[in-house]
Task: structure prediction
Amino acid sequence: MIEKTRPFAVFDLDGTLADSSHRQRFLDRKPRDWDAFFTAAPADPPLAEGVALCAAAAEECEVVYLTGRPERCRRDTVAWLAEQGLPAGTVHMRRNDDRRPARVTKLEILRRLGRDREIRMLVDDDELVCDAAERAGFRVVRARWTEAGAALKDAQEREGRT
Result:
């Protein structure tokens, strides 16, 4: 059982724990093929740096996963986390119809989580999410071990898709 007083360590998925670069090609075309992009997610290789940081954080913190993936991807996402041997943790996903930028949706969830518990860190690769979280007073670890493509960065900010 997880002790409810442990601080949270909050981890993003795509570009932080999961290497989504193989599926970014679905976003380079017009129109973007979001169904194919998310359908390919179970084939994401893990990112060693993120996985190691997550495992280390779990020694002192309760791990929480915070992703811009839509709720319809929950089953595949939870299965992928288990297959990688990542720590058990609550997975927060966006509603299927939520198209707000990740910097808005993720900050909203961080604030809610932080009302009752310390958030030790947020680990994310999206610079706009990181900037917003830092401005709100959260400790941020920027996941700079991979580079998101231009189409994915645009999609995160303009289309609110991941």
Remarks:
- The CA atoms of residues 103 and 131 lie 8 Å apart.
